[in-house]
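Project standup — Tuesday

K.O.: blocked on the structure for the chain from last sprint. Re-posting the sequence here as requested.
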Amino acid sequence: MNIKNKELGVIIMSTFPDEKSCMSVAEGLINKKLCACVNLTKVRSLYTWNNKFEDREEYLALFKSTASTSKELKSNIERAHPYKIPEIVELKMNKVSRGYMSWLAESTNKKEKNKNRLRRSRRS
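H.V.: unblocked you, prediction finished:
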């Protein structure tokens, strides 16, 4: 795929209360082509909530996507997130390998997904 206008990569970071909710959100967003990849891992989070110190296990998700889909991706994460106030942090990718950036852009290209759907329906 030829990347026009030098598409930029982003990582959207968010924590979830459990693996099930994290996996559910991640799978849905990959299927919608809003992110190409999600890395998740169990982490220990220390914070205050409602004036109380918390020490919790959570799941950290790194949603890898492009700048052109980041707004829609963040909106979808917020809508599907189980927390009242979810952590949604956008990190700009810097100095990304050309091959990886091409894959990211291709994997989040909804136009390409729609073209593939049309091709399959014509074959039927």
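K.O.: great, moving the ticket to review. Residues 1-5, 113-124 have pLDDT under 50 and may be disordered. Residues 4-123 form a domain with the Alpha-Beta Plaits fold (CATH 3.30.70.120).
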